[in-house]
Amino acid sequence: MAVLERLNIGVAGAAGRGGSFRAAIDAHPAARLHAVCDIREDMLEGAAERLGASETYSDYGEMLQGSDLDAVIIGTPMQFHAPQAIAALESGVHVLSEVTAAVSVDECKRLVAAAADTTALYMMAENFTYMKPNVLVKELVRRGLFGDVYYAEGEYVHELKGLNEITTWRRKWQTGIDGVTYGTHSLGPILQWMVGDRVARVCCEGSGHHYTDPRGNQYENQDSCVMLCKTVRGSLIKIRVDMLSDRPHSMANYVLQGTTGCYESARARGEANRIWLADLCEDRNSWKELSELEEEYMPEIWRNPSEEALQAGHGGGDYFEILDFVNAIMGTAPCPIGIHEAMDMTLPGLISQASIANDGAWLDVPDSRAWVK
């Protein structure tokens, strides 16, 4: 433990995405934000002031070696997640990494190996798993109200062509590769609802190319990419990712079907999340609003959330994931998305990219647990 018996936390990418986490760190008595890192040196002092950090670095390696860090939050562009996580783990520093965990299967293998060779903890920050509706559905599944869960859908439909030109890494790593490049927001909550299961094989197809970037170049990613997933236990999952189609932002959509229950999330503003459960709905043809079940079934974290949690990004996920990360390091709670759960959420999308390049062929998804000797 660091000085004053508090975890010293560093944030990589602090001038951008990494600046979202101060409230949760400040709220946890066992943690403090100690150092910030960003390659944009002109923004570092401002980031340090906003986040309350005492040290600034423009080089990530220098922060790992020069600062007295116990843990690091990686909020950099996705192509840096795996290399930076590996470097931290090899230095004995705990890691909370933004999604996706890696951008290639080879990176996944090296990340798993690094996690296996250290006592430092790895957690992936899939914040959509913490959204209030997703937490409630997870609890309803846990209580058996869905019966045997066997089908799910997840969609991430968020037009990002303009943002591609501002955060230019997205133009290569999200819309410059064909297939499901950014699927963990959709798949992550579903895998937590399908307890103990994982994706065994996938196939992927796209809807074609209908847009060009401001330079007139065609996006390599097809407009809508759909990945079908068959799980080890025989369940079916459909994942759609679309970051190019001109339309209103619908964020994340979900469907869950079990033998005694069904859930469909709202698809537009003003609509309600709806649910049917055989044990709680008298009429087989009538839905309940999911919110009607909050009083009886909502887990504790969403019972009396703080104002900081309510104001946090990604439906509170940016707040609650930090608390879970610190608690896991302290040994007071299990790590909810450790290295193998991160691989379960990341690898299907990577394999989908090989599938779409091979005319939608069904391809096996490796189990990262088999990589650890």
Features:
single chain, 373 residues, alpha/beta, 9-stranded mixed sheet, 6-stranded parallel sheet, 13 helices, 31% helix, globular
Brief account:
The protein has 373 residues and is an alpha/beta fold. 31% of the residues lie in helices and 21% in strands. Strand 1, helix 1 (22-27) and strand 2 form a beta-alpha-beta unit.
Please, could you describe this protein's structure?
- With 373 residues, the chain is α/β, with parallel strands linked by helices.
- The protein contains 13 helices and 15 strands.
- The strands form 2 sheets. Strands 14-13-12-11-7-10-9-8-15 form a 9-stranded mixed sheet, covered by helices on one side. The protein has a 6-stranded parallel sheet with strand order 3-2-1-4-5-6, sandwiched between helices.
- A hairpin with a 2-residue loop joins strand 11 and strand 12.
- Helix 4 packs parallel to helix 5.
- The radius of gyration is 21 Å and the shape is globular.
- The relative contact order is 0.16.
User: Structural class, from helix and strand content?
Assistant: alpha/beta
Low-confidence stretches: none
Helix residue percentage? 25-40%
Radius of gyration computed on alpha carbons: 21 Å
Strand residues, percent = 15-25%
Q: How many alpha or pi helices?
A: 13
Distance between the termini: 30 Å
Number of strands: 15
Describe the protein's topology.
Blueprint: E1 7-12, H1 22-27, E2 31-37, H2 44-51, E3 55-57, H3 60-66, E4 71-74, H4 81-90, E5 94-97, H5 105-116, E6 122-124, H6 132-142, E7 149-157, H7 161-166, H8 169-173, H9 184-193, E8 199-206, E9 225-231, E10 236-242, E11 251-258, E12 261-264, E13 274-277, E14 288-289, H10 294-297, H11 307-311, H12 317-330, H13 339-356, E15 363-364
Parallel strand pairs: 1-2, 1-4, 2-3, 4-5, 5-6, 7-10
Antiparallel strand pairs: 7-11, 8-9, 8-15, 9-10, 11-12, 12-13, 13-14
